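seq as requested:
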Amino acid sequence: MKDKMSIAILLLAMSLPVSLQAQYTKPVYISLPGPGNIQHLAYVVGKEKKFYEEMGITNAQIVVLRGNAINVQALVSGTVHFSSAFGPAMQTMFRGEQLRILAQIFNQVPFGLITRPEIKRLEDLKGTKIAVTFGGSTYSLLIALFAKHGLAQNFAEYINIPDNPSKVLALQQGRVVAALMAPPTDQPLLKAGFKRLVYGGDEFKDVPFSALLATAKTIKEEPDLTERMVKAVSNHSTGSVPVAKVASISSCATEGWISGRSRHRFTI
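struct tokens:
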């Protein structure tokens, strides 16, 4: 009788929502390269709509660190638990750092090449100054865009401006003639007469761009937290954004299942 009661209690506990089970009350830091851009929307909405709290993460803290490279450094050093700096993270993985992609949030390149009105085609950018973030996605994307259209890497001069507000200001002041930006940061410029010369999603189709990242150490030591975080982010992504896929790129053999609104497999 006692065994049956124990089993009944266990089954009841398993059926409870995460929010009614043990809460994760310690601060959980999630770093983003910049606030407000569409590729980071899932994280911000998760905070506003209390998706983190639904998953039992009661003290999720979103930290904005200007520039992708700084976000990767913060993740590797353990300063933050999770991050969304996808491009530089891949480079860091190739160098052997133990970073893992937990969930793909966005499956297209959201950046548009915003230019001054007089620029009509890519060739008009020859010798001009273009705002990019060295070590970040915008620089790599611009080089790939030029290569695709048969233009040399030194086709233009690249000015390192890490954050979007500074890129907007540089365009408005005429210090640069173009910059890669994602919505909604580009909207004030477009309303002021600047133009979206090229959209990255049209040039590079079905490219994983934004992802939830963690270190292998965090996944191993905090598997419950990792599962809750993926569920919280996927809660928004599967409902409102085209794709939220979990990528299994780790070489470790331990596997688990994560179920949000849709079912994802991950490897840790």
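The first helix runs from residue 2 to 15.
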